[in-house]
Specification:
- The structure holds 2 protein chains of 2 kinds.
- Chain A is of the alpha/beta class.
- Chain A has 2 domains: 165 residues, 3-Layer(aba) Sandwich (Rossmann fold), CATH 3.40.50; 198 residues, Rossmann fold.
- Chain B is of the alpha+beta class.
- Chain B is 17% helix and 25% strand.
- Chain B contains 2 helices and 5 strands; from the N terminus they run E-E-H-H-E-E-E.
- In chain B, a hairpin with a 2-residue loop joins strand 3 and strand 4.
- The chains are: A alpha/beta, B alpha+beta.
- At the A-B interface, helix 6 of A face strand 3 and strand 5 of B.
- Bound molecules: pyridoxal-5'-phosphate (PLP) and zinc ion.
- The site of zinc ion has 8 residues of chain A, from loops.
């Protein structure tokens, strides 16, 4: 693939997170020396609060901090980001907290934070000369890739576990493109995708062979939270964890903003949230391990059902460095979390959001999280995509005939 | 001796002369990797760390099973087994 013409903005090289080996920018993702994940290295210039504020109301306002060309807005893409940061006073009250915000990423074009990472992956994949946008997915990424490829006018190839929620199957298939359900769990699908990526040289598996670029898209969550708080960092943040990429990139974003002088340097704590039925990172945290033992997932939070999380060790690093924790909640608590957020703030989260709210509650009651300190939680996806999780408990108050008598008799007045 | 088939990830194909799939011998994964190294000098040190354990960011599959769920390097590799060596990346 021809890279001479590639414009990846402020990105300068790829460097191995494990051994520090440096590589030219290109379609690589693992270190040849140690298999460690590669990270983008940058040379940032001229990024100020004013330059950001003058940008579009989507993630491209931060393009000077991303591995994308400076004209990225001019090519068709889904323009995700700049989702609302909701002051959650009722939820705070219910949990005995002071200042709580929900970063509501269900407001993205395909209703999850995955539109952010895919938009960056698409821009980089174009520059790197790939022809097909592909992914293995736990569901949300599938939606985002299929939609972004349709918008970009290129082919998509999406692979998901066959037992995915029907909503996520339909909301992927509707965009057309190649869409394969695989008889296996996500970790099986992920392995298959890695093997296919080794054969199909012009397929950009966004979260496999384009992962260094893709993952940077999650930084925009951190940038937006800081900007929306008035260029400040929160004291605490709770983030759902599947592979752990989102959590580590939010931390990276906060660190970059500090280094660039765009926010004041202050301590903050990062907390991770998992479902007990797939909690390899929480288990490692609680046992004091720095190695994450893979598990076979069994939870209704399918979007978080990654049993072998590649960024798990880095989640542990961030959480321990900042004084946070990784917590996990049962499926029943996930459903409770969804209802609590919906009932207190009018926000209908998918199971991942239920995991986050459930863990928030647990972290407050265990004392790990300070109820007085300003806290942000991420709602990374939309409840309409995981209806089955709440269908048994989200039911009407009554069914009546269209008569005033019947209404009175129902006792609902 | 049991002959198995090993899928080689892109970043290790410099060792196998570009081959994406090679044959190797061995009754366990450990023996297979030793045999691979005999034919493709240096490849074992890419897969295993200095203490001889599978590197943190390498996933090895015997059949469809991640060997971390089986017996690691002692996982049996009967004749005809398909082995895959894959960089650990996930997130979906
Ligand atoms: C809704 C939702 N939230 C959170 C995550 C976790 O992201 P990560 O794999 O970056 O930890 C996912 C991943 O699939 C997701 O779909
Ligand atoms: Zn390395």
């Amino acid at each position: 693939m021809a890279l001479d013409a590639a414009d990846l903005g402020p990105a300068t090289s790829l460097s191995c997170r494990e051994c520090g080996e440096s590589y030219e920018l290109g379609p690589r993702y693992a270190c040849e020396q140690c298999f460690g994940p590669l990270e983008i290295a940058y040379d940032f210039t001229g990024v100020t609060r004013a330059s950001i504020e003058a940008g579009p109301r989507n993630i491209w306002r931060y393009r000077g901090l991303l591995p994308v060309p400076s004209n990225v807005q001019d090519t068709p893409n889904t323009e995700p980001g700049f989702t609302r940061l909701v002051r959650a006073d009722h939820l705070a009250e219910a949990l005995g907290m002071q200042r709580l915000w929900v970063k509501d990423d269900s407001g993205n074009p395909t209703h999850s934070f995955k539109d952010r990472v895919v938009a960056v992956a698409l821009a980089a994949a174009r520059e790197l000369g790939f022809k097909v946008l592909a992914c293995p997915s736990t569901g949300n990424l599938a939606n985002a890739v299929a939609a972004a490829a349709a918008r970009a006018g290129i082919r998509s190839a999406v692979f998901v576990p066959a037992d995915l929620e029907q909503q996520k199957i339909i909301t992927t298939a509707v965009y057309g493109g190649t869409f394969v359900t695989v008889r296996g769990n996500y970790d099986d699908v992920n392995r298959l995708a890695s093997e296919i990526a080794g054969e199909q040289e012009d397929w950009a598996f966004v979260n496999v062979n384009v992962r260094p670029y893709y993952a940077e898209g999650s930084k925009t969550l951190g940038y937006e939270i800081a900007e929306q708080l008035g260029w400040r960092l929160p004291d605490q943040i709770v983030v759902p964890v599947a592979s752990g990429s989102q959590l580590t990139k939010i931390d990276k974003a906060f660190q970059e903003l500090i280094k660039l002088g765009l926010v004041e340097d202050k301590p903050y704590k990062v907390f991770g949230a998992q479902a007990t039925g797939c909690s390899p990172v929480a288990a490692a945290f609680k046992n004091g391990h720095d190695v994450v033992r893979p598990v076979k997932p069994d939870t209704i939070a399918k979007s978080l059902a990654i049993g072998n999380p590649a960024d798990g060790p880095y989640v542990l690093d961030v959480v321990r460095r900042t004084g946070g924790a990784v917590e996990d909640v049962t499926d029943a608590e996930v459903v409770e979390g969804i209802r609590l957020l919906a009932g207190t703030e009018g926000i209908f989260a998918e199971t991942a959001g239920g995991v986050t709210v459930g863990c928030l509650r647990k972290l407050v009651s265990s004392g790990a999280l300070d109820p007085e300190a300003e806290t942000v939680i991420i709602n990374s996806g939309d409840g309409l995509k995981t209806l089955d999780a709440v269908a048994p408990v989200a039911t009407p108050s009554a069914e009546i005939d269209p008569t005033l008598e019947d209404f009175r008799a129902s006792g609902l007045a | 001796m049991s002959t198995v088939s090993v899928r080689i990830p892109t970043i290790l194909r410099t060792y196998t002369g570009g081959e994406s799939e090679v044959k190797a011998e061995g009754a366990t994964l450990r023996e297979v990797i030793t045999d691979l190294d005999a034919n493709y000098n240096g490849i074992a040190a890419r897969i295993l760390d200095d203490s001889g354990k599978i590197r943190r960011f390498v996933n090895v599959y015997v059949g469809e099973e991640d060997v971390r769920f089986a017996d690691g390097l002692d996982t049996p590799t009967p004749a005809g087994t398909q082995i895959s060596i894959i960089p650990a990346v996930a997130g979906g």
